[in-house]
Specification:
Structural class: alpha/beta
Subcellular location: Cell inner membrane; Cell membrane
Family: Belongs to the binding-protein-dependent transport system permease family.
Strand content: 5-15%
Bound molecules: adenosine-5'-triphosphate
Protein name: Dipeptide/oligopeptide/nickel ABC transporter permease/ATP-binding protein
Main location: membrane
CATH topology of the largest domain: MetI-like fold
Organism: Natronospirillum operosum
CATH architecture of the largest domain: Orthogonal Bundle
Number of helices: 24
Length: about 650
Amino acid sequence: MNISNALPLARWFGHRHSRTSPLQLLLRNRLAAAGLIVLIAVCILALITPWLPLHHPNQTALGNRLLPPGSDGHLLGTDHLGRDILARILWGTRVSLSVGISATLVAATVGSILGILAGYFGRHVDNILMRGIDMVMAFPYILLALAIVAVLGPGLLNALYAIAIVNIPFFARNVRGVTVTLRNREFVDAALLSGKGHARILLTEILPNVLPVIVITMSTTVGWMILETAGLSFLGLGAQPPQADLGSMLGEGRRLISTAPHVATIPGLMIFLLVMSINLLGDGVRDALDPRLKAGALRRPAARTRTAPAARQQPTGEPKGLLEVDNLRTEFHLDGQVHQAVNGPTFHIEPGECLGIIGESGSGKSVTAMSLLGLVASPPGIIQNGQVNYQRQNLLGVSDPVLRGYRGGELAYIFQDPLSTLHPLFTVGDQLVEALRAHRPLSYRAAWQEAVRRLEEVRMPNAARRAKSYPHQLSGGMRQRVSIAMALANDPQLIIADEPTTALDVTVQAQILKLLNRLREQKQASLMFITHDFGVVKQICHRVAVMYAGEIVEIGPVEEILARPAHPYTRRLIGCVPSVDYEGGRLAEIPGLPPQVSNLPVGCKFADRCDQVTDQCRAAPIELDTLNERHQARCIFAREVSA
Ligand SMILES: Nc1ncnc2c1ncn2[C@@H]1O[C@H](COP(=O)(O)OP(=O)(O)OP(=O)(O)O)[C@@H](O)[C@H]1O
């Protein structure tokens, strides 16, 4: 669980900034909700047991021995001493629940304190505490629990201590790990600098962030602890006769399994029900506190984006340009909602051309680009329609090996943040070698030489030495040069660059743009350049496609669009950039927000933010209007404006 996103418990019951509270998330998970209902029912029954009209659980009646379930006055029958099983089960559940929960609380409290202290203070404190924990963990835990009860003597309280002690390490280790990460975070340093003492930092900075982890560990271990307590009682080391708990009832019933199976089956079923419901609920709690798990963060995404049959049709005619995208539609299916991220962009890229894709954050630029190579995570992504035609094939319909051959070969991708795409544990040279050898039969030595040459090509200072560096040893600009070298390693026909300069400062940004442009010219490759900056578009692109809410709202030659933007959104975007030679008066922000992709309007998607909007704009979808052979815009006033 990533603690930067950890939710303090206060957010459990909703938060004014979060759309879905963890409780709602929990209830949406059907299995967890079922677990919660069963658990609540069992707990209520256990709580009201003293007031129910039941027999005394220890009252024997030898004349009524082993009555079957449904007998008169004994709904669940009687045991070998004629005691009422219903009464004993309810009283036994009370005992098992209280011992299990108490053991969990003890283990959680002691384990968490040890974990927090070890993680926060580190060094000797960490060494001493964690070596102690390691010693406890060195024994098989059930044997250790048996040994502890053997020393302390049989009895429920001693079973509780034993179970708590053997579970302390789980809490201590989990909490220590999280605390170590938190200890190195800037907000803890800031608290230290502000003069807070260690005790206050532990209570106000560390504990609230560790609490979700403690709750998750508790919810996933309490079931086990009830089971372990039942195990000790089953072996005669927990509850002592005549007291009933679920484990001891199971132990007593075991001897009668062939003659009166209900005596063992009923407590067995109750243990199953209790532990199952707690575990289902525990899993739900874990997912609710970390909704990314529910969104599939830990699920291994498929090797390529799921593609509907409609998007797998092969092209019939000759594709336009080097790569042609036709009516691409990519959606995300999340929590029963469909998010239409990409809504039918159609464009092509000529050989050697640089096409800019521009738009605000969330306009669908990256999802469009990633869809071309099947890189959108599935689930939740799915390509519903469209074609991506390259070399007379629809890439959305080619086989996995063919697509793999293109990726990183003829079709290369440069991501926005090289630090998250370069492997932190391998040198950049090794990563280049891997990229080269994935597509070419080179020896390691030859590939290394080629890697250094590629680094020189992207003007990496002291390339031979830098090849032996790890990504964290390089500056942002150098890392992006490495990413470019990797993308160019196999002489691609098309380079898709997804905001490759956004994370860089202006000087480095200019160098990288120059480099990309030079390499594109030298190699006669095409470049699809994603950006939100018209200044960048002006510098290196031939044509530009303006995206809004997953649609292309204007496409055409850069100079023409800068001189005569035909869509109000394009005008606004250009107006936001101070560095472009646009004489449009003062800089203005674009008022309002883009529409939600899960609830797009029928007509013009920009209507709510447009100062020229009319009823006609909202009535029906607006088609792209062809203003001239190369310039199109999706606005009913486009012709008037560009005339
Ligand atoms: N994995 C995902 N799950 C759900 N929705 C997603 C996912 N990835 C993207 N989206 C949604 O798809 C839409 C388009 O996102 P995209 O990343 O393509 O925008 P963008 O224009 O590239 O923005 P930015 O400039 O910030 O990268 C957004 O509404 C986004 O919330």
